[in-house]
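Notebook B, p. 112. Complex prediction, attempt 2.
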Amino acid sequence: MICQYYRSMIEKQADTNHAIESPQLTAHLQQCSACRDYREQLTVLGIQLQSQPAYEISEDQLQHLQAAVMEQLSDESLGQAALCGFTQPKPVTRFHIIRSIAAVLVLAAVAGLSFRVLIPSTSTHETLPTPSQMTSQFSAAMTFPDQLMQSEIQSLRNDTKRMISFLRKCTPSSPAVTEVLVTETDSEEKVN
Amino acid sequence: MVTNQQQSDEVLARLAATGDRAAFNELVQRYCRPLAEFAAARLTTFQDAEDIVQETFLRAYTAMGSFDPSYSLKNWLFTIAYRLVVSEYRKKRPDRLSEQAAEALTEETESASPQSSWLWNEVRKMKTSDHDILWLRYKQDMEIEDIAAVMGKSASGIRVQLHRARKRLAKKMKGADNHTAAFQNGTVCLERTHS
C-alpha cells in the first residue's frame, strides 16, 4: 500500500517536465529496491520513447512541404482575411440564388401553414352555428325515428363534440362555450 | 535588432495576425516538421500527412486574428492538426473500406515507417489515442494538461490512459525478448507490486 502511494508519485514525476522534489519519496527509495527499480524502468522507457525514431521525414520532404504551405498562402486577399479573422467570401452563383429562392418559398409555406393551424380564419367562426341553432337541430333530429336520420343525428353530435373541444381549447372560459356545454349535456340527457 | 528566429511564438503570432508573412513563415519553419511527423506517424501515407499540415497552417493563418496569445501557439496548432487527423482517420478507417482496399492499406501502413524503431512501431499497433498521448508526451514534451487540451479530454483521463499505455508497452516489450536487445535493461516491468 505504501509502495503504491510512492509509485503514483513516481508516475507524477514522469508525467511532468518540472522536477518534483519530495524528501519522503527520496527516503522511501533509499530503503525500497522495488520502487527504485520501478522508477528506473519508467525513466528508461521514457528515454527510449524520446530518443528512438518514430517517424522522421527527410529534409527534402520538409522543404517541399514548407514551400507548399507558403505557396497556398500566396494569395494576397487570403492574407487580408487573416487580419479580420475570417475567410474570403465565396462568389455568388446561379445555384446560390435558386437555393435562396427555394428556401424563401419553403419558409413562406411553413409560415402560412402554421398561421392557418394556430390562428383559424374569421370565416370559420362565421360558419359555426350558434348554440341555439344547434339545440334546435338536435330537437328536430330527435323527432325522426328513421334509421338514416339517426345516423345523421349521431354524425351531427360527433361534429358538435369536436367543435366543443375545439372551442374549449381556443377559449376555455368563454360564456358561449359554457352555454354550449350546458345545452349539450341537456341534449344528452334527453337522448338517454 | 531582434530577428524573427529570436522571437517567441506568441510575438510571431501577433505579427502574423497583422499580415506579416515573414513572421508566419518562421512559424511554419518551427512547426512544420513536428506536425508533419505527428500526422505521418498517425496516418497511412505521407501524402495524407502533407495535406493535414497544409490544412493546419491554412486554418491557423485564416484564424490568426482570433488567436489569443495568452495560450500556447504550439498547443493551438497541434489541436487543429489533431482534429484534422482524427477526421481524416475516420474517413479512411479500414473497416469502412472494401476488403481489397483495406488489404492494400495495411501493406502500405506496415511499410510506411521504415525509419521507425521497433518500440514506436509497437506504439503504432496500440490504440490510436494511446499512440497520440505517447507521441505528444515523449516526442513533443507536452505536459498532461496540454495533451488534454489538444485531445479535448480531461487531464485525469489522459493521466490514467498514459499509465495504462506505458504498462501495455512494457508488457509487449517483456513478451518480445528478441527485440529487447536494443532496449537498455531488457527487463522493463511497470506492473505494480503491492508491498
